[in-house]
Amino acid sequence: MYKVSSLAEEYQKKLITADEAAAMVHNNTRIHYGTGCGVVNDIDEALARRADELKGIEVLSTVALRKEPFKLYQATSSNEQVRFASAHFSAFDRQMNKEGRCWYIPMLFNELPYYWVNNENDIDIAFFQVAPMDSHGNFNLGPQVADMWGVIKSAKKIIVEVNQNMPIAHGHQTQLNLYGIDHIVEGSNAPLAELGTKPASDIDKQIAAHVVELINSHSTLQLGIGSLPNCIGQMLADSDVRNINAHTEMFVDAYVDLFDAGKLTGNKPVDKGKALYTFAGGTKKLYDFIDNNPICCSAPVNYVNNVNVISSIDNFISVNSCIQVDLYGQVCSESAGHQQISGTGGQVDFVMGAFLSKGGKSFICTPSTRTLKDGSKESLISPILTPGAIVTTPRTATNYIVTEYGAANLKGKSTWERAEMLINISHPDFREDLIKAAEKNGIWKNTSKCTF
């Protein structure tokens, strides 16, 4: 550690430009661009300016929240120059994947820190954004501790990009000292990428109403991203349910609404008084709420998503969405057939942890149908998952499936009971076809129901 009196001098010794940082990337180098809102901007642009010189570069990231694709991706055209990989796809990762430039790394989110630590020196250079250094020589990682300490421990070299707009996140392991940093780039202070959500649809509101009806006071809530979770948060804010706690992988705007309504209290046995999360993504309202707010607690993903921690909290409520569910109760939440959409994330951890929690429930929500390009509708409850679809939550772990037509608790139900319950919450236009398919596949018959 440095003496406080020497911090300014040591800072200047490590200060370099974005172009100088980019010049440290040589051919056949593996680099990490950061996680969430902490992915770099100026260094990415500097590397893009060197695009013609680069060969055999691999760029890693996790849930990269950006306003546009990486500049380095835009400046290159082949995997021989630069290839990308992500442990959880964002919209731009999907775009790169479709063009054969980005690959998904299948892994439970909570395992990532362990992976990096167990593969020391797996990353040549870790680039990521931080808040400005404080008077003690510490740089705040912002609201995305997530897997960052695994990345830091695995990297041979650490180069941070300072962004004055990065919120100061309170929590566990949110600080990185100047002593542990090789170089510093003072960035152009780009605003954090905001994740806007569409207004809740009538179907979202119907699904949310079914979920909220099953949530009691004194519950701890995990929500995902999108119009539906925000709708659930708003309904809870307007409901008679009180004393809501937050323990969530992703911190979203809905929690701010709950706090403003006086519903978010933090009165839970684990991390008492804190709204616990591993990374945040939302609007400026959310980032301003997090900034230097001791109620908000960012923590490593291997703690936040730990099934043992989740299950130790009574009345734990997990709410996630999916892309497709079949009549066995298998849930796909990350791909459309063979096309990777997002990632496994922590859905399985929270589904299992919520069920093991005393009084806990896990809800996986989906509209009953989706509209195709030709205007026709397709049922999102299928006889069997589409070929190539990834099973995110296995049927053995699935608890509640919720559509606009109701909530089906599949836990402990036989295969024919599951099929019948899921058909009952499917869109009426598809129920007859689902019954026929279930009979054909031998998982449902009119005579299946026990009469004793």
Automatic annotation (TrEMBL):
<keyword id="KW-0276">Fatty acid metabolism</keyword>
<feature type="binding site">
    <location>
        <position position="346"/>
    </location>
    <ligand>
        <name>CoA</name>
    </ligand>
</feature>
<dbReference type="InterPro" id="IPR003702">
    <property type="entry name" value="ActCoA_hydro_N"/>
</dbReference>
<dbReference type="InterPro" id="IPR046433">
    <property type="entry name" value="ActCoA_hydro"/>
</dbReference>
<keyword id="KW-0808">Transferase</keyword>
<dbReference type="GO" id="GO:0019605">
    <property type="term" value="P:butyrate metabolic process"/>
</dbReference>
<dbReference type="InterPro" id="IPR037171">
    <property type="entry name" value="NagB/RpiA_transferase-like"/>
</dbReference>
<feature type="binding site">
    <location>
        <position position="323"/>
    </location>
    <ligand>
        <name>CoA</name>
    </ligand>
</feature>
<dbReference type="InterPro" id="IPR026888">
    <property type="entry name" value="AcetylCoA_hyd_C"/>
</dbReference>
<comment type="function">
    <text>Coenzyme A-transferase that converts butyrate to butyryl-CoA.</text>
</comment>
<dbReference type="InterPro" id="IPR023990">
    <property type="entry name" value="Butryl-CoA_acetate_CoA_Tfrase"/>
</dbReference>
<feature type="domain" description="Acetyl-CoA hydrolase/transferase N-terminal">
    <location>
        <begin position="9"/>
        <end position="190"/>
    </location>
</feature>
<comment type="similarity">
    <text>Belongs to the acetyl-CoA hydrolase/transferase family.</text>
</comment>
<dbReference type="GO" id="GO:0008775">
    <property type="term" value="F:acetate CoA-transferase activity"/>
</dbReference>
<dbReference type="GO" id="GO:0005737">
    <property type="term" value="C:cytoplasm"/>
</dbReference>
<feature type="active site" description="5-glutamyl coenzyme A thioester intermediate">
    <location>
        <position position="249"/>
    </location>
</feature>
<dbReference type="Pfam" id="PF02550">
    <property type="entry name" value="AcetylCoA_hydro"/>
</dbReference>
<dbReference type="GO" id="GO:0006084">
    <property type="term" value="P:acetyl-CoA metabolic process"/>
</dbReference>
<dbReference type="InterPro" id="IPR038460">
    <property type="entry name" value="AcetylCoA_hyd_C_sf"/>
</dbReference>
<keyword id="KW-0963">Cytoplasm</keyword>
<keyword id="KW-0443">Lipid metabolism</keyword>
<protein>
    <recommendedName>
        <fullName>Probable butyrate:acetyl-CoA coenzyme A-transferase</fullName>
        <ecNumber>2.8.3.-</ecNumber>
    </recommendedName>
</protein>
<feature type="domain" description="Acetyl-CoA hydrolase/transferase C-terminal">
    <location>
        <begin position="282"/>
        <end position="438"/>
    </location>
</feature>
<feature type="binding site">
    <location>
        <begin position="224"/>
        <end position="228"/>
    </location>
    <ligand>
        <name>CoA</name>
    </ligand>
</feature>
<dbReference type="GO" id="GO:0006083">
    <property type="term" value="P:acetate metabolic process"/>
</dbReference>
<comment type="pathway">
    <text>Lipid metabolism; butanoate metabolism.</text>
</comment>
<dbReference type="Pfam" id="PF13336">
    <property type="entry name" value="AcetylCoA_hyd_C"/>
</dbReference>
